[in-house]
Amino acid sequence: MQQTPNSRNQRRPQLIAAAVVGGSLVMLGLSFASVPLYRAFCSATGFGGATQVAKKGPKQAGQRVLTVRFDANVSHDLPWRFEPEVSKITLRTGETTTVYYRATNLSDRETAGLAAYNVSPDQAGLWFDKLACFCFSEQHLKARESAEWPVVFYLDPALENEENMNKVEEITLSYSFFPAKGGTEKPTEAPNGEPKT
After folding, report:
1. How far is the CA of 35 from the CAs of 39, 78, 121, 165, 181, in angstroms?
2. Model pTM?
3. Which CATH architecture has domain 52-193?
4. Which of 105, 85, 111, 44 is nearest to 173 (CA)?
5. Is 172 left (phi over 0), alpha (psi -120 to 50) or beta?
6. pLDDT digits over 92-126, tens only?
7. Residue 84 — φ and ψ, nearest 5°?
8. Can you point out the beta strands (E) in 79-183?
9. Under DSSP, is residue 21 helix (H, G, I), strand (E, B) or coil?
10. So where are the chain's domains?
């Protein structure tokens, strides 16, 4: 049976509505997928100063010597003091190094934080490899507690062959702590009000 022009016109609003609903669902799905896809892209390419995660250090050191500076920031919503043990170091590419950051909970309750991190200049992220870092997981501090957390890393010797790294002499590793969404708010007491170490 052949459709008449009138019956096609009656179905047209239904097709348009279905297309709009279908398109909206696709866009909603993409919005949820965009954050993990963006993170995966940044990790794979070093885009935006995202660092790499390594399982083991390189077999031998390279030739170039660079300076790495350390930066620490805390959201005003998180009552912590957070700072690097040293402000900068000089190291050879391929040399595995450990530096420490110290955090102190300034409040009278247990709190939790999660660190966001990057390196600058942005192109250095592809060559900055972390073997261990406190930034991989949520960190908890009891009331007035202090802790030292290590970062174990190296600069990939392959950066020596990259033209866009030729003029880079200094890299900055920056951390910013934010309150963890599931952070503990339970009040706790420190003996005599003194910070725990």
Report:
1. 6, 24, 22, 28, 17
2. 0.66
3. Sandwich (2.60)
4. 85
5. beta
6. 999 999 999 999 999 999 999 999 999 999 999 99
7. -80, 155
8. 80-84, 88-92, 97-105, 111-120, 128-133, 139-141, 146-155, 170-179
9. helix
10. 1-45, 52-193
17 contact partners, CB below 8 Å, separation of at least 6:
none
Whether the link from the prior residue into 84 is cis, omega within 30° of 0, is: no
Q: What is the pLDDT of residues 143-177, one digit of tens each?
A: 999 999 999 999 999 999 999 999 999 999 999 99
Closest C-alpha among 128, 112, 113, 140 to residue 171:
128
Cα-flanking dihedrals φ and ψ of residue 178, to 5°? -125, 155
Q: CA-CA distance, 82 to 168, in Å (whole number)?
A: 27
Q: 106 vs 4, 9, 126, 138, 190, CA distance in Å?
A: 76, 69, 35, 18, 11
d(CA 89, CA 78): 28
Q: Kind and range of the H or E element at 70?
A: strand 65-74
Contact indicator for 106, 130 with CB cutoff of 8 Å: no
Cα distances from 139 to residues 153, 159, 171, 196, in angstroms, run: 19, 32, 25, 16
**Location of structure tokens 């940044």:** 42
User: Amino acid identity, residue 173?
Assistant: L
Dihedral of CA atoms 49, 54, 59, 60 in degrees, nearest 10, equals 20
